[in-house]
């Protein structure tokens, strides 16, 4: 106080005690200090009252009394072993030692030094000792100086402990980069470990060099590069340790071998040219001398071995290389290491190879020399050669070869060296080779060839004359016929000889044992036909109508045809009129285009008149002359011409067909006519489909081809069937993945149209058979759909397939139509197309008209029904709302919808400026739930009605 007099002071300590005293006069400003000892902790409300006759002061104060923080101890186990890829829970024990009252309302703040700080209450209740256990997971190796601060309002104690956390060393491996080392070479000593952190690796190279200490762990490979300068066997090791353990290991591959390499040697043949055999040597034996020299400026290799290959097939066993040389300074700086001799029994160009090796090197030292020998017993073997494979010749003497492949001529002789070969192939060509005893030659023409080989060397020469036969193979043969035709009529089968095989035999199997004159027909080279064992019995029975034709005759006909002059001029027009009797009265005009091709043609429909490959005029075929269906291996060739046909019917039942053919003005090859074909005739007696088979054989090859021959009761042709062009896609029902493919909604009636033309006088009844296959795009297969819900898929009236809505599931389908002629075996054709069934758009409609009104504050809810008239057309029951989600949007009429939504109808782009009269930018939409300048998105209701 600064001034006061005659005042009484009363202090209430709030613990049941008080202090009162009187002060007469303050002589100067002073502090009045009194002391009071509280005996128990707590919060006390102290009050002090000072008064005298003229003044009064009263003050209230909160006094916090606590027991201090004392007698604490922190312990932890260190080091801690950290599991690989996991964590280690570490226990920290804070011990209250007791003997004093525990600290009042104390807290424990622990910093684990890994970025984690926690605060826990100090919960000791009396003076009894107690341990507070705190667990903490460490996930990384390290040294952690953990600190703990235990404090209350009156005191604090700071404790700390150091914790080492490491992975235990496991699977420590020392691997030298080299097992066998050349002297003065650096070797990397690599240390890896499956587990272990913050380790140190002490390297011992094993050769007495100083140790090297580097850090190591499982994270990276530890490496020390050491140079071994002295020959020897060394055992490197490493001592690895960290805070939780240590490991001592030796090299995982065993000791390191350090050796001098193989260098500085030279092999010398003392004789470079020699002759063997009479008159040079009495026998075919010749002994030569060789030397192995060593450059004495190098170091001899350590523990080396050697072997000698004398070049004639003889190789010595493995021997130890002498540790010292035989003669020093034998030839200048070279010492003599070895002297060798060897006896040769034939001539040749030889190389003596001395291979020397030890653990660190392997070197071959060579020298060449020549031993000349006269040629004796020269001969030639011949082989066919196709796609890298040698094949033995064919025929009676194994000397027939295919003209399409080269012939391999292989020379051989019992004696002779350094031979040059001169080949005369008897086709105006020849070839020379040195030391190469074979040659490949392609003959351009078939025939018999007397080949000449002249072999020569320094001593002399020899000549042989092998004879071979070269034949052109059976290849690209074809058989065809203007079918189908009526039974008991003549069938012409033009046989295209293709490659025109040399001296070939052809057999046709008509597959009808009642065919006339026989089921089998042979033609070609009769001599060869008689050599085919499996055909001999059939040939004897049909020899009476054998057709003899030689390959030479076919070659001549083809040559004359392909080399005759062609005409170039103005277009010409030819007109052909044919009169036939029919039962109906029709008029029809068609245009047909035939294109020249040498590849497999597409199937193009010809409706009225065509000119076939052999120049024959055919009426109302209905089957393309270039169809790929009726034959197995046939290449059509036709002139590019346009034929226009007009059919006119008269009342008396006579029809006149007039055709006009426009021949192009350009010069065209005449090969389309194939006048070198052989035409074979037969008569089929039983209707049906026959797989007519043509086979061709000669000494070097065989081939076959086929033709589907249709035999009918009367005249009949294959029906023309096309569904792909009849079902074009029209926008927007074109498939996204295949723009030319049609797609259809599942809920709508599906009609697959067809374009079918029947051309058969034997019967007018055709059956239409539709099949539907669902495509499995992942498995790349298809499954037939058998339940078409009552659709007419097989009948004489099913030209179009009509499926009711929701018949097919979503997916890609193939629709196939097969049209077959009634009572006519095998007369059918088919076509197919792909179509995708896709989801029908949902129908969304709100019931109750366009406007609903309610007074403000009306208790009748505003019910909006979106489910009654909304439905999925692809569900068979319109009332089935399975899987449908209703998302309601709301705006005021003065607002516009947002310009863009996300997939779940959240606003992506805000709405444009509105025409509303208010200006509050947060007052938008109907619900005010999004707080966004947009028409409000309402709650997403699964239900179809909102209130």
Helix share of residues?
under 10%
- Average pLDDT over all residues: 84
What summary fits the major beta sheet?
A: 6 strands, mixed
What is the third-level CATH name, the topology of the largest domain?
Immunoglobulin-like
Strand order of the largest sheet: 44-57-56-46-47-48
Going by CATH, the homologous superfamily of the largest domain would be Immunoglobulins
**What's the total count of β strands?**
73
- Write down the Rg: 55 Å
Domain PKD: 416-471
Main location: membrane
Organism: Dreissena polymorpha (Zebra mussel)
Keywords: Membrane, Repeat, Transmembrane, Transmembrane helix
Features:
single chain, 947 residues, mainly beta, Immunoglobulin-like, 7 domains, six-stranded mixed beta sheet, 3 helices, 73 strands, 2% helix, flat
Descriptive report:
The protein is mainly beta. The chain folds into seven domains: 61 residues, Sandwich (Immunoglobulin-like), CATH 2.60.40; 95 residues, Immunoglobulin-like, CATH 2.60.40; 87 residues, Immunoglobulin-like (Sandwich); 108 residues, Immunoglobulins (Immunoglobulin-like); 93 residues, Immunoglobulin-like (Sandwich); 119 residues, Immunoglobulin-like (Sandwich), CATH 2.60.40.10; 107 residues, no CATH class. 2% of the residues lie in helices and 45% in strands. The chain has three helices and 73 strands. The protein has a six-stranded mixed sheet with strand order 44-57-56-46-47-48. Strands 59, 62, 63, 64, 66 and 67 form a six-stranded mixed sheet that branches. Strand 36 and strand 37 form a beta hairpin. The longest helix is centred in the middle third of the chain and has 12 residues. The radius of gyration is 55 Å and the shape is flat.
């Amino acid at each position: 106080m600064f001034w006061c007099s005659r005042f009484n002071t009363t202090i209430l300590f709030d613990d049941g005690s008080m202090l009162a005293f009187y002060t007469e006069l303050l002589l100067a400003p002073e502090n009045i200090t009194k002391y009071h000892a509280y005996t128990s902790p707590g919060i006390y409300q102290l009050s002090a009252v000072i008064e005298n006759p003229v003044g009064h002061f009263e003050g209230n104060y909160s006094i916090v009394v606590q027991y201090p923080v004392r007698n604490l101890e922190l312990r932890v186990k260190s080091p801690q072993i950290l599991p690989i890829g996991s964590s280690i829970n570490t226990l920290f024990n804070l011990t209250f030692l007791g003997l004093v009252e525990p600290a009042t309302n104390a807290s424990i703040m622990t910093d684990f030094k890994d970025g984690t700080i926690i605060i826990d209450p100090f919960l000791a209740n009396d003076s009894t000792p107690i341990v507070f256990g705190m667990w903490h997971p460490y996930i990384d190796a390290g040294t952690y100086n953990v600190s703990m601060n235990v404090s209350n309002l009156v005191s604090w104690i700071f404790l700390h402990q150091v914790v080492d956390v490491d992975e235990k060393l496991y699977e420590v491996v020392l691997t030298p980069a080299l097992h066998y080392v050349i002297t003065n070479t650096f070797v990397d000593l690599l240390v890896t470990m499956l587990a272990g952190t913050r380790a140190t690796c002490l390297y011992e190279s094993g050769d007495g060099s100083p140790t090297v200490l580097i850090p190591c762990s499982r994270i990276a490979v530890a490496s020390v590069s050491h140079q071994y300068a002295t020959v020897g066997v060394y055992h490197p090791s490493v001592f690895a340790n960290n805070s939780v353990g240590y490991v001592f290991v030796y090299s995982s591959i065993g000791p390191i071998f350090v050796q001098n390499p193989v260098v500085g040697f030279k092999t010398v043949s003392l004789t470079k040219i020699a002759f063997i055999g009479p008159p040079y040597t009495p026998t075919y034996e010749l002994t030569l001398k060789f030397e192995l020299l060593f450059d004495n400026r190098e170091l001899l290799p350590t523990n080396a071995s050697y072997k000698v290959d004398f070049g004639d097939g003889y190789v010595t066993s493995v021997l130890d290389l002498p540790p010292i040389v035989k003669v020093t300074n034998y030839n200048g700086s070279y010492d003599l290491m070895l002297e060798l001799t060897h006896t040769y029994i034939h001539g040749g160009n030889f190389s003596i190879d001395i291979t020397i090796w030890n653990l660190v090197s392997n070197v071959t030292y060579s020298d060449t020399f020549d031993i000349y020998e006269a040629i004796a017993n020269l001969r030639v073997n011949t082989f066919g050669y196709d796609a890298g494979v040698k094949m033995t010749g064919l025929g009676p003497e194994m000397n027939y070869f295919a003209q399409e492949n080269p012939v391999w001529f292989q020379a051989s002789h019992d004696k002779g060296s350094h031979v040059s070969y001169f080949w005369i192939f008897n086709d105006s060509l020849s070839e020379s080779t040195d030391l190469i005893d074979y040659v490949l030659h392609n003959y351009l023409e078939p025939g018999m060839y007397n080949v000449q080989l002249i072999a020569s060397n320094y001593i002399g020469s020899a000549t042989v004359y092998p004879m071979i036969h070269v034949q052109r193979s059976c290849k690209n043969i074809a058989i065809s016929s203007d079918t189908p035709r009526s039974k008991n009529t003549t069938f012409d089968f033009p046989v295209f000889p293709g490659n025109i095989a040399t001296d070939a035999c052809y057999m046709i199997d008509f597959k009808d044992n009642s065919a006339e004159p026989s089921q089998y027909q042979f033609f070609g080279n009769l001599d060869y036909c008689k050599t085919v064992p499996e055909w001999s019995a059939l040939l004897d029975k049909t020899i009476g109508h054998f057709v003899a034709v030689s390959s030479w005759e076919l070659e001549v006909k083809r040559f004359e045809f392909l080399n005759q002059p062609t005409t170039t001029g103005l277009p010409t027009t030819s007109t052909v009129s044919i009169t036939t009797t029919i039962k109906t009265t029709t008029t029809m005009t068609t245009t047909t285009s035939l294109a020249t091709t040498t590849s497999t043609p597409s199937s193009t429909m010809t409706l009225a008149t065509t000119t076939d490959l052999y120049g024959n005029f055919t009426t109302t075929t209905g089957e393309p002359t270039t169809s790929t269906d009726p034959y197995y291996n046939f290449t059509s060739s036709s002139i590019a011409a346009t034929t226009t046909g007009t059919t006119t019917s008269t009342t008396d039942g006579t029809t006149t067909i007039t055709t006009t053919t426009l021949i192009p003005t350009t010069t065209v090859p005449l090969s389309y006519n194939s006048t070198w074909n052989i035409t074979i005739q037969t008569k089929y007696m039983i209707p049906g489909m026959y797989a007519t088979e043509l086979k061709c054989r000669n000494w070097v090859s065989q081939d076959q081809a086929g033709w589907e021959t249709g035999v009918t009761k009367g005249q009949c042709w294959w029906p023309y069937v096309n569904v792909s062009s009849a079902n074009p896609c029209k926008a927007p029902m074109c498939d996204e993945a295949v723009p030319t493919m049609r797609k259809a909604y599942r809920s709508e009636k599906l009609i697959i149209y067809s374009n079918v033309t029947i051309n058969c006088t034997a019967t007018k009844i055709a059956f239409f058979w539709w099949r539907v296959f669902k495509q499995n795009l992942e498995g790349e297969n298809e499954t037939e759909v058998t339940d078409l819900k009552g659709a007419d898929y097989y009948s004489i009236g099913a030209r179009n397939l009509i499926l009711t809505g929701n018949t097919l599931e979503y997916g890609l389908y193939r629709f196939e139509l097969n049209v077959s002629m009634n009572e006519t075996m095998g007369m059918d054709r088919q076509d197919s197309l792909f179509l995708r069934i896709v989801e029908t758009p949902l129908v969304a409609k709100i019931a109750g008209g366009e406007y609903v009104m309610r007074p403000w504050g009306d208790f009748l809810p505003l019910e909006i029904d979106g489910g009654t008239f909304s439905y999925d057309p692809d569900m068979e029951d319109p009332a089935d709302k399975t899987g449908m989600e209703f998302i309601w949007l709301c705006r005021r009429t003065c607002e516009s919808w947002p310009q863009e939504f996300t997939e779940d109808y959240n606003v992506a782009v805000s709405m444009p400026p509105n025409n509303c009269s208010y200006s509050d930018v947060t007052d938008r939409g109907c619900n005010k739930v999004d707080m966004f300048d947009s028409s409000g998105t309402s709650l997403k209701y699964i239900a179809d009605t909102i209130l």
